[in-house]
Write a structure and sequence with these properties.
With 101 residues, this protein is mainly alpha-helical. It has two domains: 2-70; 77-101. The protein contains three helices and no strands. Helix 1 (2-43) runs antiparallel to helix 2 (54-70).
């Protein structure tokens, strides 16, 4: 019983660390990109150029994937997808067994 409680505690701690890591990543993202954009705004005559926002968008995509992992959001391979795949393979195995018998 104690081992099960320790296991639950370890899983909960790991989950909290994942979420904490995401929040740290998000704070660093905001601070660094704010510094970069303010610096470009103050030192450039033409602020609205695509090249000024590449870091913002590229890193933002990475941050979105980090959020998906931290909060366990996966629209492509969710529970319903897993269930469909399992049922598909069960049906295929059943067809193979029916052919064999």
């Amino acid at each position: 019983m104690e081992n099960m409680n320790n296991n639950k505690l370890a899983r909960a701690k790991k989950r909290v660390d994942e979420i904490k890591g995401f929040y740290i990543h998000a704070i660093v993202y905001v601070l660094v990109n704010a510094f970069i954009l303010v610096n470009i705004y103050l030192n450039s005559n033409d602020f609205w150029q695509w090249s000024h926002f590449i870091t913002l968008f590229g890193w933002g995509i990475g941050l979105a994937f980090h959020a998906g992992k931290a909060f366990r959001f996966n629209p492509f391979f969710g529970k319903s997808w897993e269930e469909r795949q399992i049922q598909k393979y069960i049906d295929e195995d059943k067809k193979q067994m029916d052919k064999f018998l």
